[in-house]
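Sanity check

After download, print the first record. It should look like this:
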Amino acid sequence: MSLFGEAESADHRRPAYVDAPPWSERQRLTEEKAALGFYLSGHPFSAYRREFAPFVRSALVDVQPRNDPQLLAGMVASTRTAMTRRGKMAIVLLDDGTAQIEVSVYNELWETSRDFIKEDRPLVVQGKVAQDAFTGGLRVVADKLYDLTGARGRFARALKLSLNGDASAGGGTAARKLRELLGPYRNGTCPVKVRYYNGGVVADLQLGEDWRVTPDDALIDALSDWLKPENVEVVYA
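Expected structure tokens:
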């Protein structure tokens, strides 16, 4: 209670704690790195590995050279730029917890993608993987890059939601609450499917074309907070 042992003058009242929800795994890892400079209890790509698995077939440690383009995914560990005869290029270090791979991103692609290539953010790379005769490792040249929202927009088949008659909607109906959450993300590419439970009745619905959404992470988080994470699924197959 006292730095110098003056217990008799110490205030023995219990401190007032802030009532706050527990951190998600993603936030906990972010705070660990901010405090310690490295991840302690896990790897941030673990939160995305299962979602990316339907279209990213190999972990980085298992990637092998092939003639056809491959899809790779991981967290951006670092970026650096250099000048070449073709103009400015970037070297993006991709890390999925199993290995790290450097990805070469040439000028035009770099300029159109640089705003979402941020450290500690997930990135999906479509590119050619070849053997690097100089280093003995792998050389990856990116053809296309996707952030999380872009990857969902490109590869997802639907956003599937499960609702029931008890879904809290802040005093309104579940339909009104759903409309409020989806509204800012309308006119995207991803269809929305709803499975609605009410008593012993189940109905599967697909919202109209004008309710296709952009599956942004903020939308997924808002829906998960309302319906619980297990009732919100980005479907890829």
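If your output differs, re-run the checksum step. Summary of this record's structure: The domain at 47-148 is CATH 2.40.50.140 (OB fold (Dihydrolipoamide Acetyltransferase, E2P)).
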